[in-house]
TrEMBL record:
Keywords, in A-Z order: Cell membrane, Disulfide bond, Glycoprotein, Immunity, Membrane, Signal
Signal peptide: 1-16
Domain Ig-like: 26-104, 146-224
The organism of origin for this protein: Oreochromis niloticus
One Pfam family cited in the UniProt record for this chain: V-set
Main localization, broad class: membrane
Protein name: Uncharacterized LOC109194339
SMART domains, sorted: IG
Transmembrane segments: none
Subcellular location: Cell membrane
Length: 245
């Protein structure tokens, strides 16, 4: 299993570097969560979040009690345990739908702690080289607070499938006031338009629109997660009049 690193925003407080693991389709995947030392742990909860979806409980682990699974089918697909230092979640045989963020919720006597890992499931035939990501525009004229902006992200594919569903699209913003970029929107694989460019290539178009405020200055990126890799657009810089990032 290959370990990659990209910057993602968890649903929890603050920004953090989230490890991204890549697993081959059909292989087992093991996700590890380090437990804090010197803290009394009441239990560990594992959740999965697909792009554009809410958290789904996989399993709850409470000391000597039998693991409680969120769905009956999870018993045959997942194994989980924890000791004084680590909690491990194992997917016995990865399928494409297993791709997403896996959250480890550590329940202590004071404040709960969260960590996350993004799992990319790599198919047997597709490669990231089949895709090209082009973002437009690269620069916007300075906008006033309340103005509307629209960004476009085009995903060009050499696949013979019209807008294949084996990738997910994210939108990030990086501002000078942030240590790391943050996810601001997820398109999943819901495209706005599709267009056949030639006999061997087609394009899927994704749009992101919003009314900007003074806190929205920064550089915006679209990112495509596919085939065990993350492909980034070239970025769009946004300045708000009176605000310079």
């Amino acid at each position: 299993m290959v370990m990659l690193w990209i910057i993602l925003l968890l649903l929890h407080q603050g920004y953090t570097l989230v490890p991204v693991k890549t697993v081959q389709l059909g292989e087992p995947a093991n996700i590890t969560c380090a437990l804090p030392s010197g803290v009394s742990i009441k239990g560990v909860h594992w959740y999965k979040q697909s792009v554009g979806d809410t958290l789904k409980l996989i399993v709850s682990l409470v000391k000597t009690a039998t693991p409680e699974y969120g769905q009956e089918i999870f018993k045959s697909r997942f194994q989980a345990n924890y000791d004084k230092k680590f909690s491990n979640l194992t997917i016995l045989k990865a399928v494409q739908d297993d791709e997403g963020i896996y959250h480890c919720g550590i329940i202590g006597w004071i404040n709960p702690e969260w960590t996350g890992t993004y799992l990319l499931v790599k198919g047997n035939n597709e490669t990231a080289s089949n895709y090209t990501v082009v973002q437009w525009p690269t620069v916007l004229n300075p906008l006033r607070s309340g103005n509307s902006m629209t960004l476009q992200c085009s995903v060009y594919s050499d696949s013979d499938k019209m807008c294949p569903r084996d990738y997910n699209v994210f939108w990030f913003r990086a501002g000078s006031d942030q240590l790391h970029p943050s996810i601001i929107y997820t398109d999943g694989n819901r495209h706005s338009e599709s267009e056949i460019i030639s006999d061997s290539q087609e394009r899927c178009l994704y749009r992101f629109s919003k009314n900007v405020s003074s806190s929205d200055a920064g550089t915006y990126y679209c990112a495509v997660a596919t085939c065990g890799e993350i492909l980034f657009g070239n970025g769009t810089k946004l300045d708000i009049e009176g605000i310079w990032c």
